[in-house]
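sry for the spam today, last one i promise. struct tokens for design, 181 residues
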């Protein structure tokens, strides 16, 4: 069995255990272990290397950690998903407003492409529209530009209302389940 086929089989075990236990990707590994079938958990546990993940980490992090990448395992802290969402932003201090495309979305930030030139450290408000029928954008009250290169810049999310954070988690979960990882 190839590494990718093995990963897909394990991912199915995880998703099946989550579904049967009523868990979401934001639940912890400890909750998954407590509620999973022992056979399914034994298969899942085979991917956990000592110190790689703890019981307090989220199921989402497990799914990302076992994703086969160029080096066999993707150990990024947060998953990033290739997206192309329309985004709007404004920075009061810099008197800048603009429109762009949200790319590489993660739970804590994104990469954006825009004609507006922003400098690292710039604080801004950001909203982005996801999906074809999404009428209301997800709004990030406060974000900061972490890096900028040409027409791209990286944004770290600093403050979201709880309902906006829940919507963002929902989008990330959908992207995770739809991804061909």
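last one done:
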């Amino acid at each position: 069995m190839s590494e990718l086929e093995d990963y897909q089989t394990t991912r199915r075990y995880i998703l099946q255990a989550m579904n049967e236990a009523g868990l979401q990707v934001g639940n912890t590994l400890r909750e998954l272990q407590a509620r999973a079938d022992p056979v399914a958990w034994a298969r899942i546990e085979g991917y956990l290397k000592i110190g790689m993940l703890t019981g307090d980490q989220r199921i989402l992090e497990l799914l990302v950690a076992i994703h086969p990448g160029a080096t066999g395992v993707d150990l990024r802290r947060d998953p990033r998903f290739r997206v192309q969402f329309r985004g709007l932003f404004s920075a009061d201090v810099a008197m800048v407003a603009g429109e762009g495309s949200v790319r590489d979305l993660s739970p804590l930030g994104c990469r954006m492409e825009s004609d507006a030139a922003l400098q690292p450290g710039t604080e801004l408000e950001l909203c982005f529209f996801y999906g074809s029928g999404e009428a209301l954008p997800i709004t990030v009250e406060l974000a900061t530009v972490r890096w900028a290169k040409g027409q791209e810049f990286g944004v770290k999310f600093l403050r979201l209302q709880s309902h906006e954070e829940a919507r963002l988690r929902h989008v990330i979960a959908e992207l995770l389940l739809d991804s061909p990882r």
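The two ends are 16 Å apart (CA to CA). ok im logging off now
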